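Hi P.,

Sorry for the delay on this. The queue was packed all week, but I finally got your sequence through. Input first:
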Amino acid sequence: MKKCRKLIALLLVVMLLASSFATSASAVLVGGETPYVPVDDDVIPTIIVPGLFQSETKYYDENGNVALNANGEPYKMPFFLDTTEEIIAKAVEEALLPIANLVIDQEDKDQMAANAVADILCETLLGKQQLDENGQFINDIRATPYNDSFDGLSKHDQETILDHFPMEYYIKHAGADKLYVFSYPSLDNMISTAKRLCDYVQFVKEDSGYDKVNIVPISQGGSVFNAVMQIYAEEGRSLAEDFNKIVFAVPALNGSTLVGEIMEFGLIDEDYEIYRDMIPALLGKDDVVSAAINVALRIFPNADLNNLLDTVFDVFIRDYARYSTCLWGLCPTENYPGARAIYLSDESTKNIVEQTDWFYQAQLNSDANILKAQAEGVLIFDIVDYNIPLFHLVDSWDDMPADGIIQLDSTSMGAYGVNNDVKLPADYVTPAELDHCTDPANHNHKDPQNLIDVRTGLLPESTFYFYKQSHESSASNDVFMKLASSILMDSNFTSVHSYPDVFPQFNNARKVKGLMKDVAEMQEYDVSNLPTAYVVELDAAINQVVKMLDNTVIDVYEAEAAERRFYDICDTIEAYESGELDNYEPKENTAYLDFSYLLMDLVYILSQVLYVFFGGAGFSDMIG
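Then the structure:
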């Protein structure tokens, strides 16, 4: 039963991780015109190392040109899908009859439906990114190279970068010529990727004229940097030769439990995961589609549905996932031996396992490599989100502190916590052998929420924490980005003790990227035809937002009040200009019948009722 859950989980976990540290629109500077901390006269260049699917990646044809789909358009990352028409045509041709027979006969004879669905789904999603037995792409898959600083890139490349990494604050104060971005295909070969990053560091040094660089490994970029540190160690080189500061941002230094447990143990092994909780957890509990899928799955008998998922899973792992060493880089050390025994034990994976074993050792050496670099003079920082349960996919989804995507132990280099929203015991004392504080008598590293012991993390003197900030919304927290930028721009920013009144070690979640964009638009809005009272209120609301954004010690109530006031006046202005002001009421006070929500509620209730009365049974099982 566990194994049959893995396919959906693995595919969707990859998509969940793909959303990490991303934002849908470029950031807009609103306020913050003055640096929050001093900026060096001569800022050392910074290299961003992206997370999963954050590098613009393209699929090329046999002639070396960007491959085009049937509509003459470039294939789009991350999966380079064919056109909808092609996918539907292929599904109809190869899977419609077997699935129809399964539905009619309520039996999948000779596994025809399972095999057809497996082939189509896996080929559609990952066929163009298939890897060989050495862990190299079979097709020509390349990330867009950025062989220049941000200042020298095309407008398209600049916009692409800012979509994922809203570094306007850094660019404004350090200079566009001080920002570089390393790009790589996220499912590529880990060792090749790490070696290219090593070469890129030398390129940036030469291009910028500096003898050292700063580097920001983000999410999956943290696992890539593990490999870089191991390469330096094996070559007998010091990281201090090339790096001034390393600023980890929600790094996957020990992978993600979501990936590791799915690969070793599978998904939670109860029917309620497929028929009740899993799809809503992935698509959103408020999404009517998720509840509808739960109902629709029951057209298949339970046994045949499980067999279908089993088959798809086998194809997905055997032909695709197990050959991506970058994907293996997201498997935590505690899960790797078990997953290795399951998937890397046959002759076809002998070259893969040699590489994944090497990376496993790099993960085990991560702390030692970091401490060695620190001892040699590299300033190392870490920015961590916490107190968001993992997505509801694996047995331990709510057994450990996390940021929704990666467990706290991985992002924080070992900080201890009991669980999300579970306070440390009243008599808890930091174990002496795990206490990394450099001055326990005088340093206060106490979490205001009393949820985690940061002194057990490897670098308590230089690790910052954002309470209830989710992994995938990190870049939407303007203070998160300003903190990282300030660390990079100020040589006197050396620890959490440097500017505690401006950037405290413990801060709160904030998701204001959309708000900043909307405020910037309203600052340019033509108010000449509006009543004076509206103009005054709009100006006051904008000023309140700007004041809130300029406060780097996040007050969640201040943020909510400023956002609510701003959108209230925006809605009022919209109603006034559309001639509907007489009927307008603030949305939170409006009572009206929304049939889309009614439909969602009805489908959701149906899904729950079916589970309560019939568990994991299909419709024919119920009748039988």
